[in-house]
Design goal:
By secondary structure, this protein is of the alpha+beta class. It has helices at residues 33-46, 48-86, 115-124, 158-162, 175-179, 189-196, 239-246, 270-284, 300-343, 345-353, 358-395, 403-429, 433-437; strands at 7-8, 15-16, 90-95, 99-100, 103-104, 128-143, 146-155, 167-170, 184-187, 205-208, 211-219, 234-238, 259-264, 295-299. The longest helix is centred in the last third of the chain and has 44 residues, at 300-343. It is elongated and about 105 Å long.
Length: 440
């Protein structure tokens, strides 16, 4: 007679002896979130060096992403600040290429922009808030026994409005002084410091080409322009003073200007203003419809947009390259979790044997992978912020920590642990308890 079959406890593979009552159902031993977290931390603490080396990939990736995004944002801010320092809503007109006797001359070889062009633009283009005709020449400026080679710029009063200059000491010259060709000067910070040091130059007398000028004002500092030129290394004097007393007033150049700067009213369409300026200058220069412009017209807002787009593209590229480190770190997490599953096969089998659900095993290993990635991400955030300050300080750029990028980097590190930890966790959850208990 065959012996009766043993009763098997469902889900365990454990049997009661033949002829005895079945064993009571096993109590479910699923882990709650707190237990799973403690279990994950215990498993990581048991292999500290391995956990640190695994988190290093996530650490480097997060730090690199935060640093590149922050430094890129600072660089963009620096570029935009330099362009803004030239003045807002600017159009710049410079002499173009002209022909003489069938020969095309280089740009600026003939004075085809005049003081009268500037006055016509001011009066006939309503979109313009200010217009300044300018001439400039390198001159030696002398005070007592000190001298300084600088740019002496002859302009009308609108130049300070166009370029958003702020007076620090003294005042700007007036319209009456400009019309009367008075010998007054406004100094940039570099010139004031080079000639007067800590002294206040307002009310003092300087000489330009042996002509005495009274210093009536000192401008606030602007710094470098986008081309790297020091905007504070300048002396402003009235246009007609410059033409008659400093730079000469020959028959050809008597009313010529080197360039014109135009400021468009806030809210006006820059493109429309640009076309109005072009049409008026072509009419004044008597250009036929088939003739090219004999002047160059540049829209500074376009230049600002182009530079900003270039900086954004570079920042995005650097962040993408840095994000590759996160991918490498994620692969490291997956690799170490697979090793962990192999090492803890008997433990997994025992848990399953005493009633743990497969989803509990899955959750345990997923949480372990996420915790590992988050620890690396948190350390990477601190390192990335520190690295951002270091690089920005070395480059002389402002530090702009993008907190949305920080939050995104941390979230991505957690998702990296979740994504790359899922396969090892699933593999652990799908182990057969009998085979797992037999694993050496």
């Amino acid at each position: 007679m065959n012996a009766p079959l043993a009763d098997v406890r469902p889900g365990t593979g454990l049997a009661s002896p033949a002829g005895l009552p079945p064993l009571p159902p096993a109590r479910r031993t699923g882990l709650d979130l707190g237990e799973a977290l403690l279990s994950a931390l215990s498993a990581l603490a048991a292999n500290k060096l391995r956990a640190v080396l695994t988190a290093l990939g996530i650490f480097i990736g997060v730090a690199a992403v935060i640093a590149t995004v922050a430094v890129g944002a600072g660089a963009r801010q620096q570029v935009l600040a330099q362009i803004q320092s030239l003045g807002a809503n600017l159009l710049i007109v410079t002499p173009g290429t002209v022909s003489q006797g069938g020969v095309r001359l280089g740009a600026g070889q003939r004075p085809n922009l005049t003081w009268d062009d500037a006055q016509a633009l001011r009066e006939e283009v309503p979109a313009l808030a200010a217009v300044s005709g300018n001439i400039r020449q390198q001159q030696q400026v002398v005070f007592d026994n000190l001298n300084w080679a600088t740019n002496v710029q002859g302009s009308d009063l609108d130049v300070f409005t166009v370029h958003d200059w702020v007076i620090e000491d003294g005042r700007f010259f007036t319209a009456e002084e400009a019309r009367g060709a008075r010998k007054v000067a406004v100094l940039g910070q570099t010139v004031a410091e080079s000639l007067f040091g800590e002294e206040n130059p307002v009310g003092r007398e300087i000489r330009i080409r042996q002509t005495p000028f009274e210093v009536i004002g000192v401008l606030a500092r602007k710094g470098q322009n986008p081309m790297g030129q020091d905007q504070d290394d300048v002396v402003f004097i009235p246009f007609w003073t410059a033409r008659r007393s400093v730079m000469g007033a020959g028959r050809v150049w008597a009313r010529g200007v080197n360039w014109m700067t135009l400021k468009v009213h806030d809210g006006e369409d820059m493109r429309a203003a640009e076309e109005e300026v072009r049409a008026l200058l072509r009419q004044r220069h008597r250009l036929a419809p088939n003739e090219p412009d004999d002047f160059n017209l540049r829209n500074m807002s376009d230049i600002a947009a182009t530079r900003d787009a270039s900086a954004r593209t570079l920042s995005t590229l650097l962040a993408a390259v840095a994000a590759v480190s996160l991918l490498v770190g994620g692969i490291g997490v997956m690799n170490i979790m697979l090793v962990s599953v192999t090492e803890r096969t008997r433990e997994i089998g025992l848990r399953l044997a005493i009633g743990a659900r497969r989803r509990d095993i899955l959750a345990q290993f997923l949480i372990e992978a996420v915790v590992l990635a988050l620890l690396g991400g948190a350390a990477g955030v601190a390192a990335g912020i520190g690295l951002s300050h270091l690089l920005a300080g070395a480059a002389g750029w402002p530090v702009l920590i993008q907190w949305d990028a920080v939050a995104l980097a941390v979230a991505v590190s957690a998702l990296t642990g979740l994504f790359f930890g899922f396969w090892p966790a699933r593999r652990a959850a799908r182990l057969d308890p009998i085979q797992a208990l037999r694993h050496d």
